[in-house]
C-alpha cells in the first residue's frame, strides 16, 4: 500500500458515521434511526466499552451543570441541600422550583431583573399548561437554568466581581469554572461556546465527561465536587422535576448521579466509580431513554421504565423506540 493509499484509508475510517444506537419502529417497520457515540467506564476509570467516537470534543450542554455548580462553591458561595441541587439543575419550572429561585435571589440581595437567562416557559409540559392557564407569561425565573444563573450571580456578588458581565467567558467566575471542567474531566477544554441560556459552554470529549462524573461521586466528602453530587442525589426533584427521567433514575438507584443535556447528551456515574456518557448525533431527545436504559443494562443496573418509549398512531401504541446495541 502506498502512502497515498494509507492516507485515503485513514480518511475513510475517520469519516465513517457513528453506529446506530436506537431505531424507531412503527407498525413493524423501521421508520428512523438515531446514530451516536457512547462510552462506559469501569470502576477503575478505564474504558470498558466504546461505541463511535468518544474522544472528539462535544458540547455537553446541561450535563456541564454539576461542574458549573462546583465552580460557584470553589468561588466561596456556601450552598447546601436543595439550594445547591437547583444550582446544578435544568429544572422543570414547577412552582416549588420557581419559589426556591425567588428565595435564593432574596437571600443574596439580588432580584430577577439581574438574571441574564432568557425569559421562558416551564420546561415540563404539564406545568406549562397550568402556568399558561393562570395567565402567566414567559419569565426568567421559569427558565430551566434560572437556579444556575442565580448561583453565578450570588457567587459573583460574594467575591465583589462584576454582576453585569457574569456570563462573559473572561469573567473571573467563568474562568474558574473553566479550570474546574479541565480538572475533573482530565482534559483541556477544546472550545468555548454559548449555551442556550447564555452561559459559557465548555467542550470536552464524552470520555472526559464520563470521567468528570466519576470524579464527582468518588471525591472526598466535603469537597465542592462531592457536595454537588450529594446534593443532586439527595434532592433530585430540584435537579429536574417530578416527572423527569433524571429524578426517577436518581431515586431508583441509590448513589447514582445523572444529568441530561440538550441535543441528546447524557452522563451518569455510579458510586463504585463506573460511569457513562453518550450523545445522539442528531440531537433527538426521544432516543435518550432507550439508549440510557440499554447502557445501564450493560452495566448491570436495569431500570426498565427508561427503555420504554412508545410510538403512537391514532392515539394508540403502534410501535416503539428501541436501543439496538
Structural features:
single chain, 325 residues, eight-stranded antiparallel β-sheet, 12 helices, 10 strands, 19% strand
Task: Give the helix/strand layout.
Elements: H1 3-14, E1 20-26, E2 29-41, E3 47-51, H2 65-74, H3 81-87, H4 95-107, H5 125-133, H6 146-159, H7 172-185, E4 191-194, E5 200-203, H8 206-218, H9 224-234, H10 236-239, H11 245-252, E6 257-261, E7 265-269, E8 275-280, H12 288-298, E9 309-313, E10 316-323
Antiparallel strand pairs: 1-2, 1-10, 2-3, 2-8, 4-5, 6-7, 7-8, 9-10
Describe this structure in words.
The chain is α+β, with helices and mostly antiparallel strands and 325 residues long. The chain has twelve helices and ten strands. Strands 1, 2, 3, 6, 7, 8, 9 and 10 form an eight-stranded antiparallel sheet that branches.
Model regions low in confidence, pLDDT < 50 over at least 5 residues: 6-13
Task: Tell me the helix content.
Answer: 25-40%
- Please outline the major beta sheet: 8 strands, antiparallel
Structural class by helix and strand composition: alpha+beta
Overall residue-averaged pLDDT value: 95
Note the gap between the termini: 34 Å
Morphology call: globular
How would you briefly describe this protein structure?
With 325 residues, the chain is α+β, with helices and mostly antiparallel strands.
Amino acid at each position: 500500500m502506498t502512502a497515498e493509499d494509507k492516507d485515503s484509508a485513514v480518511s475513510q475510517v475517520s469519516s465513517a458515521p457513528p453506529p446506530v444506537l436506537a431505531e424507531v419502529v412503527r407498525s413493524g417497520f423501521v421508520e428512523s434511526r438515531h446514530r451516536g457515540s457512547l462510552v462506559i467506564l469501569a470502576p477503575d476509570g478505564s474504558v470498558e466499552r466504546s461505541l463511535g467516537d468518544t474522544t472528539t470534543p462535544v458540547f455537553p450542554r446541561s450535563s456541564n451543570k454539576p461542574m458549573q455548580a462546583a465552580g460557584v462553591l470553589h468561588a466561596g458561595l456556601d450552598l447546601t441541600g436543595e439550594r445547591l441541587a437547583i444550582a446544578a439543575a435544568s429544572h422543570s419550572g414547577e412552582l416549588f422550583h420557581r419559589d426556591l429561585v425567588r428565595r435564593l435571589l432574596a437571600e443574596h440581595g439580588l432580584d430577577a431583573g439581574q438574571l441574564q437567562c432568557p425569559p421562558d416557559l416551564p420546561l415540563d409540559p404539564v406545568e406549562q399548561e397550568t402556568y399558561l392557564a393562570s395567565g402567566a407569561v414567559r419569565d426568567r425565573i421559569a427558565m430551566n437554568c434560572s437556579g444556575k444563573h442565580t448561583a453565578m450571580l450570588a457567587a459573583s456578588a460574594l467575591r465583589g466581581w462584576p454582576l453585569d458581565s457574569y456570563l462573559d467567558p473572561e469573567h473571573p467566575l467563568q474562568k474558574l469554572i473553566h479550570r474546574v471542567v479541565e480538572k475533573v474531566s482530565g482534559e483541556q477544554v477544546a472550545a468555548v461556546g454559548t449555551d442556550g441560556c447564555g452561559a459559557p459552554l465548555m467542550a470536552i470529549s464524552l470520555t472526559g465527561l464520563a470521567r468528570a462524573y466519576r470524579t464527582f461521586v468518588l471525591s472526598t466528602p466535603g469537597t465542592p465536587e462531592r457536595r454537588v453530587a450529594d446534593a443532586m442525589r439527595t434532592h433530585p426533584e430540584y435537579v429536574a422535576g417530578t416527572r423527569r427521567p433524571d429524578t426517577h433514575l436518581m431515586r431508583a438507584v441509590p448513589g447514582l448521579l445523572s444529568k441530561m443535556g440538550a441535543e441528546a447528551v447524557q452522563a451518569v456515574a455510579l458510586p463504585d466509580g463506573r460511569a457513562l456518557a453518550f450523545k445522539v448525533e442528531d440531537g433527538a431527545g426521544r432516543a435518550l431513554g432507550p439508549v440510557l436504559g440499554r447502557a445501564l443494562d450493560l452495566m448491570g443496573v436495569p431500570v426498565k421504565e427508561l427503555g420504554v418509549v412508545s410510538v403512537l398512531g391514532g392515539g394508540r401504541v403502534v410501535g416503539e423506540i428501541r436501543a439496538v446495541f
